[in-house]
Amino acid sequence: MKRSSMENEIHTSRLILRKLKETDADAVFLWGSDPVVNQYMIYPLYKNVEDVRTWLRSLDPDDPDNFDMGFVLKETGELIGSGGLVYHPKRDAWIVGYNLRADQWGRGYVVEAIEALLAHIEKTRPIHRMEATIAKDNPNSIRVAEKLGMTYVEDTSFDKLDGSKTFHAGLYRREFAQG
Known about the structure:
Blueprint: E1 2-4, E2 9-11, E3 15-18, H1 25-32, H2 35-38, H3 49-58, E4 66-73, E5 79-88, E6 93-100, H4 109-122, E7 129-135, H5 139-147, E8 151-159, E9 166-175
Parallel strand pairs: 6-7
Antiparallel strand pairs: 1-2, 2-3, 3-4, 4-5, 5-6, 7-9, 8-9
């Protein structure tokens, strides 16, 4: 994994991880407006690309606790998803979240990206734990959590931001040994 400090990118064998920009709106809209991708997401389904632009403008690229990155395929240069790790001090945990175009599911990109971000963060900060809250009806994301070394901790729930749906969920966690 290499990092280009000038462009703030993290490279894996197949991906370039980089901060999202307003010019990514059309690519983000492809998965943000897809009901299949959105089914278990906290945010409502995007209905127009301008709402995506508004969200992209709201992002703080300098937030030291937010490693939410775009996933770009090295081979094609396509932005196929986004996600990463966001630190929550009250839990002393890095929370995993991601979205990926449905045509890119099942290829290991999310695990590859999250592992690269963990390695990047660990260079400058200790990581004590990583967590994800996953809808019980979402076996694909549960499998991603397991591949990342997380295990089921307890039942919980979460709501879409607009209150339109509540999901029965599981909290998954990975504790990191401190050296």
